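Progress against Task 2.4 (sequence-to-structure conversion) is shown through the following example record, which the project officer requested during the mid-term review.
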Amino acid sequence: MWIADGWKDYEVIDTSRGEKLERWGNYLLVRPDPQVIWDTDRKHSGWHRPNAHYHRSSKGGGEWEFFDLPQQWSIKYKTLTFNLKPFSFKHTGLFPEQAANWDWFSTLIREAGRQVKVLNLFAYTGGATLAAASAGAHVTHVDASKGMVTWAKENANSSGLADAPIRWLVDDCVKFVEREIRRGNKYDAIIMDPPSYGRGPKGEIWKIEESIFPFLMLCRELLNDSPLFLLVNSYTTGLQPAVLSYMINTAIATMFDGQVEADEIGLPVTESGLILPCGASGRFTGR
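Structure tokens generated for the chain above:
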């Protein structure tokens, strides 16, 4: 498992009964987690005095209960600063487990010995974009949500990357890739964090199990002759590491010389010493 264990401003303190107790900077949140199927004693005082608690509804969705939490606050990861706020469906605007991938590709970018062009698709609030830019890459950041792109720009400003070579685009990722192919543009690396389910600008249905492989085949046309890396993230339980590995081997490694790895990503849990699984990632590293 690839573990995001480099955080100082974030930790999973404890897990129990379908929920996790987390520290985000100076604030404690209790949020649901479908992986937490065990029942343990909630000895840590934070369970009983959190700053906010997201309650999942049996009818789907849920709502926040706030006790003492600002509308927005920030945390740091190494040189990066992320602005957080609670919003729909339990999220805060950051997936801390992805730091395991940020560290991996940041090293590749720094050691590449050339200018690296990175395409970040389904780029959300820009964690991967900022990590790549901080390592020296030129990044094209694409997300269909204007609000998410605005949030990512705010994170870039807070991280001292306002003038970094980042191209910010509000666009449907599939349509954007199709246009880039027609334009003949190429990239050294591609990062993608596709949703499990979504709709395109004309009502097109995206279901990750059906859509991800054709999309990956499309994206490979944007890679240059010697790609540095490709990263695919999945939070869908059906896409296990072995599935990601087979998919990337089939779509990418048959075209380019390199190595494919896939594994779960996770976060250490302070109270138990165990690792909380948080999805899976597939990586292609070029030679």
